[in-house]
Amino acid sequence: MTASEQIWRQAILPIKTTIEQVIQNLDQTAIKIVLVVNETGGLEGTISDGDVRRGLLKGLDMNSPITSIIHHDALVVPPELERELVMQLMVANKIQQIPVVDEQHHVIGLHLWDEMTTSPARSNLMVIMAGGRGTRLSPHTEDCPKPLLSVAGKPMLEHIIERAKREGFSHFVLAIHYLGHMIEEYFGHGERLGVQIDYLREESPLGTAGALGLMNPLPEAPFVVTNGDVITDIRYGELLDFHTKHTAAATMAVRVHEWQHPFGVVQTQGVEIIGFEEKPIARSHINAGVYGLDPGVLNVLTADEYCDMPTLFERLQAKVQRTVAYPMHEPWLDVGRPDDLELANNRGQSQLAQKHVN
């Protein structure tokens, strides 16, 4: 996440600037950095308070040009670089700001350590589907609901809630059915985790979307829905921001899945062989089990009626409501089989997600 445009744009100064103007800018923006651009708008370098002070010690004065104190080899990153990698770069280089530049080296944003480590509070709901039987995980789920199965020392459902809490979410709704009383007994109303937890109690299985028809009162703002068996490093808040930006009724997180054909493929036209492709790789987008929804989509659901999430999207499309895909690249794992669970506990949730995708 980058600093607000108003602030980082205010920190941009032309190369024909004096030290006095830099000091004034540092004082006004309070982000401890000035971004210096050349005549073509490209980033020439950065200046910090320390750079200014070292210049003054060398005999420069308030009217001196800034050319001799510019840090020309400033570390920059492209816009697509993952948040976690940006933070690692900050720690490794002992810096608190990294400019974001495009292919022309023009500044298009600024990563600030304080912003990246402190998420704003979000009033949006997060609904977690935790009612499934987890049949494929039997016998682990015979006496324990799947979301309560331990991953890296704690229930996978707790991992999801804690991650979302770090992003500013504080109100969770858990849809429960199979052994749901065990989930309620473990989490209560969220006091132990410092959040609010409410429940949607399904009398019969309602699918990955059907439980939303039980919501009362209805949400007043867009909300996140995630499956209770999906462990991922996705930024739930950023998905919600993407959903809002694209004025969608429903947003589905998707990721690329690759599958390599085990045999060489023969291309034919009638009886003629026209080409060969040796073990081609097929790529497709798969549903990642995380969604952003507007409250209005609940109008296409009926209480106590089964509905899975793809069907919900199809109903919205039939009503010409906008549905969009949120392409994700973060580590992701659907803990649906015993070997997934074993891998999770052997390697820990973050490592396993990174190694198991695709």
Low-confidence stretches: 349-358
Query: Helix and strand string, N-terminal first?
Result: HEHEEHHEEHEEEHEHEHEEHEEEEHEEHH
Determine the number of helices (DSSP H or I, runs of at least 4 residues).
12
Q: Strand pairing plus helix content: what structural class?
A: alpha/beta
* CATH homologous superfamily heading of the largest domain: Spore Coat Polysaccharide Biosynthesis Protein SpsA, Chain A
Described by strand count, sense and barrel closure, the largest sheet is: 7 strands, mixed
Give the CATH architecture of the largest domain: Alpha-Beta Complex
Indicate the CATH topology of the largest domain.
Spore Coat Polysaccharide Biosynthesis Protein SpsA, Chain A
What is the alpha-carbon Rg in Å?
25 Å
Number of strands: 18
Strand content: 25-35%
Question: What is the CATH top level name of the largest domain?
Answer: Alpha Beta
Explain what this protein looks like in three dimensions:
It is a single chain. The protein has two domains: 5-117, CBS-domain (Roll), CATH 3.10.580; 126-356, Spore Coat Polysaccharide Biosynthesis Protein SpsA, Chain A (Alpha-Beta Complex), CATH 3.90.550. Helix content is 29%, strand content 26%. It has twelve helices and 18 strands. The chain has helices spanning 5-10, 19-29, 49-57, 83-93, 113-117, 156-166, 180-187, 207-210, 236-245, 309-318, 338-347, 349-356; strands spanning 12-14, 34-37, 43-47, 97-101, 107-112, 126-129, 150-151, 154-155, 171-176, 196-201, 223-227, 230-232, 250-260, 265-269, 272-277, 281-293, 323-327, 332-334. Helix 11 packs across helix 12. The protein is globular, with a radius of gyration of 25 Å. The two termini are 26 Å apart.
